[in-house]
Write a structure and sequence with these properties.
With about 325 residues, the chain is α/β, with parallel strands linked by helices. It has two domains: about 200 residues, inorganic pyrophosphatase (n-terminal core), CATH 3.90.1640; about 130 residues, Diaminopimelate Epimerase, Chain A, domain 1. The protein has a six-stranded mixed sheet with strand order 6-7-8-9-11-10, sandwiched between helices. β10 and β11 form a beta hairpin. α3 runs antiparallel to α7 and α6 packs antiparallel against α7. The structure holds manganese (II) ion (MN). The site of manganese (II) ion has 6 residues, from loops.
Length: about 325
């Protein structure tokens, strides 16, 4: 307990005290903002407003329009001319602040997070690695502080919890997650509508791009590997940007019998960003490590430089997919 206190890791109670004892908050969210960092940030702004305090949420990147159904309800009234208190939410490393890093990295007084990998860059950190979403931590704070969770705060917090759990499907979902989800639903929010916006809606240009990518999809190694390539030409023809392609890596791995799903995205500056998703017994990080990348056992990534053409890049990654498939499934594989 003493050790963790020394490194600046604090309890929920201490976090609540910190909020009571400070004011005029700048709330930092991570780059390429997702539902959880935005739900935590704007949910916290609403909580602070209920406590009679001022705050403003900021992000290095533009906040996607699809989150406006809750972001528009949070007062943004921090006075930057006065002393501010800087809090980061769902930000495991100051690098993830993007363009805000230089200005804020040494000024983060409190970080509220749920990533086990949080490196303690803030002066104080409240970390609950058992929380499926950081929004669970904000909900716990509201309860502890006796702040009423109203409908607009419930919109923000539900969004973070549902997006970080893939709509309550991923293995991080706990009984507590479901209980909080139920409590938020009882605040009168339309969860079906939020789920539709977050999980059932794709832009027309995204669907166009998926159609092209599926057309060019290839299967290898007895159909155990599917590879999808998104070329610059596909980006240009459809008008898609990288942020339009969130979750595209799930296409190949959702095909029955595929245990290695590879998605190659051609970068604007040339070369490829490669995402690998696997099922047992294949270790995705083993494949990506061979090309200088890394990641987790089921989800990993690597890059190939501009010297590779599409065909060469495909050949290169498939070479390592084959060798890891052979190692992990203990057999020689012929490409059919
Ligand atoms: Mn999160």
């Amino acid at each position: 307990m003493l050790d963790t206190a020394k490194q600046g890791f604090i309890t929920l109670m201490q976090t609540a005290e910190f909020l009571k004892n400070n004011d005029n908050f700048v709330i930092l969210t991570h780059q390429n903002p997702d539902g959880d960092t935005l739900g935590s940030g704007f949910g916290l702004a609403m909580l602070l407003n209920s406590m009679g305090k001022t705050s403003t949420v900021i992000c290095s990147d533009e906040i996607p329009e699809k989150y406006s159904y809750f972001t528009k309800f949070a007062p943004q009234n921090c006075d930057f001319g006065k002393k501010t208190t800087v809090i980061a939410v769902d930000v495991a490393d100051s690098k993830l602040l993007g363009d805000l890093e230089a200005e804020y990295k040494d000024r983060v007084e409190l970080c509220i997070d749920h990533h086990v990998s949080n490196n303690g860059y803030a002066k104080l950190t409240y970390l609950d690695a058992s929380a499926a979403a950081n929004c669970e931590c904000i909900y716990d704070l509201a309860l502890l502080l006796g702040v009423n969770v109203d409908k607009t705060m419930a919109l923000a917090l539900y969004t973070g919890i549902s997006t970080d759990t893939g709509c309550f499907r991923f293995s991080n979902t706990t009984a507590k997650t479901l209980r909080i989800g139920a409590n938020l639903m009882e605040c009168g929010i339309d969860t079906a509508e939020i789920n539709r916006i977050m999980f059932e809606t794709k832009s027309r240009i995204r669907v166009e791009l998926e159609r092209m990518a599926l057309e060019a999809m290839e299967f290898h190694f007895d159909d155990r590997c599917a590879i999808i390539t998104v070329t610059r030409e596909m980006y240009e023809k459809t008008g898609c940007k990288d942020e339009d392609l969130e979750g595209i890596t799930s296409i190949s791995r959702s095909i029955e019998g595929v245990i290695v799903g590879v998605t190659m995205r051609e970068r604007q500056q040339g070369g490829f960003k490669i995402s690998v998703r696997t099922y047992p017994p294949v270790d995705a990080s083993e494949i990506c490590k061979k090309l200088g990348g890394g990641g987790h056992i089921r989800a990993a990534g690597c890059q190939l430089g501009a010297e590779f053409s599409v065909q060469q890049a495909k050949k290169e990654i498939l070479k390592y997919v084959k060798s890891v498939l052979e190692d992990d499934s203990a057999g020689i594989i012929t490409d059919k």
